[in-house]
Amino acid sequence: TDGVNVAHVLDGTEWLKKADITVTFEFSSSPMDVTSIDLKWNVGGAAGSGQSRAVSMTARPWSPLIYDGVILGAGDPLIADGSVVQYALWADGIKFDNNGVDFKFKVDANPPEPLTGVNVVDNGSSLTAIWSPTGMTDFTSYRIRYRPSTTSIWTILDKTNKTILGNVSASNLTFPVSSTGHYYVNIATVDQAEHEAWQPADRVIKRG
User: Fold this and answer.
1) What is the C-alpha to C-alpha distance for residues 71 and 144, in angstroms, rounded to an integer?
2) Closest by Cα among 105, 103, 204, 197 to 147
3) What is the enclosing helix (H) or strand (E) of 14?
4) What DSSP designation does 117 have?
5) 166/174 Cα distance (integer angstroms)
6) DSSP string over 158-187
7) pTM
8) Is residue 21 scored above 80 in pLDDT?
């Protein structure tokens, strides 16, 4: 996990942010007789070869079958946007991997660009957010946040509660609000690593 996203399949199709990545491994039986467990990773090559780096993994005191280690990605110049990071574990020299191949994930270091053509239309008892569809290749959702001026708590809409927002070609969404009071609205694109690109300023809907 990069602290936001969690990769489970680890076959190179999942995206994580450029960050220090915590790797968790659970053994099926206790490795108490093992003297060292190392996490080794590489960029664009096999774990344990070439420019591989390594750290020791540490057992959780309350769960000795589970070990954690950290891939120090935040400050590593070799881990750049689009990099494929491969890693595996070595317990006293015995390699543990993903059914014969290294565990893998991709790195997304760059957030998307903010949307263009953004507008918010006041329909009285609803608002319609409008935008020009993005052309980003690693799109995962549009995200809308809105709140009345009487609270600091945002309501969030994205593909998890409005399926249409997971469609890259979507260009608008109408959602219900009170017909009275002022509202703040903002719209973002979200990429596969959960980078958000919000508008630089909220749109303000003023009534009365």
Assistant:
1) 33
2) 204
3) strand 11-17
4) S
5) 15
6) STTT-GGGG-TT--EEEEE--SSS-EEEEE
7) 0.73
8) yes
The residues that bridge with 108 in the sheet, in sequence order, are 17
Tokens found for residue 92 = 């006293």
Contact 37, 90 (CB under 8 A): yes
> Which residue from 204, 144, 136, 140 is spatially nearest to 176, judged by alpha carbons?
144
| Residue 31 pLDDT | 66
The rounded Cα 62 to chain-centroid distance in angstroms is: 28
Q: Are 11 and 53 in contact (CB under 8 A)?
A: no
Strands (E), 44-93: 53-56, 58-60, 63-71, 84-91
Two tokens at 205?
């809907």
DSSP state of 51: T
Report the C-alpha gap between 13 and 1 in whole angstroms: 14
Q: Return all residues near 54 (Cβ < 8 A) that are at least 6 apart.
A: 38, 39, 40, 41
